[in-house]
Amino acid sequence: MSKKSEGIEVWVRIRPSKNPDKQLNIDVDEGKVDFSFKKDGLKNLEVRQEFYGFKFNGILDMLTRQESVFDKIAKDVIESCFEGYNGTIFAYGQTSSGKTFTMTGGAERYADRGIIPRSLSYIFGKI
């Protein structure tokens, strides 16, 4: 279980890909995602390298299981709600990036349950 947060946390979950982008660098330990790409300039037809870096509270890599997602993200939010605090878990991302699977889970296996069914089970177990 992660430490209690006193503010908004932002996590990123990396979806498995058949063709991972070589310009993407993921540092799970530091919570950093960096990527760079070549950008054609209009002036003098120059080509330059653009670099972007992002820092997150945590990164869930392609091998992270649904149970671990719940334990790292949702459990503390639910516990805080029992202590009288409001809590929200919000999934944001591009179409087909895995938001629905993360939140509701897969229908094939019980182990693939997402944050919502696991949260409901956890809440009913506590009360």
Number of discrete domains:
2
Question: β content, as a range?
Answer: 15-25%
Helix proportion range = 25-40%
Could you give the order of strands across the largest sheet? Answer: 2-3-4
Count of β-strands: 5
Biggest sheet overview? 3 strands, antiparallel
- Structural class of the secondary elements? alpha+beta
From the N-terminal CA to the C-terminal CA, the straight-line distance is: 20 Å
Rg measurement, Å: 18 Å
The ordered H/E elements are: EEEEEHHH
Mean pLDDT: 86
Morphology call = elongated
Provide key terms for this protein.
127 residues; alpha+beta; 2 domains; three-stranded antiparallel β-sheet; two-stranded parallel ribbon; 3 helices; 22% strand; elongated
Please give a quick description of this structure.
The protein has 127 residues and is α+β, with helices and mostly antiparallel strands. It is 28% helix and 22% strand. The strands form two sheets. The protein has a three-stranded antiparallel beta sheet, with no helix packed on it. It has a two-stranded parallel ribbon with strand order 1-5.
Describe this structure in words.
- This protein is an alpha+beta fold.
- It folds into two domains: 7-63, no CATH class; 65-127, no CATH class.
- It is built from three helices and five strands; from the N terminus they run βββββααα.
- The chain has helices spanning 66-82, 99-104, 115-126; strands spanning 11-13, 24-27, 32-40, 47-55, 58-60.
- The strands form two sheets. It has a three-stranded antiparallel β-sheet with strand order 2-3-4, with no helix packed on it. Strands 1-5 form a two-stranded parallel ribbon.
- A hairpin with a 4-residue loop joins strand 2 (24-27) and strand 3.
- Helix 1 (66-82) packs across helix 3 (115-126).
- The radius of gyration is 18 Å and the shape is elongated.
- The mean pLDDT is 86.
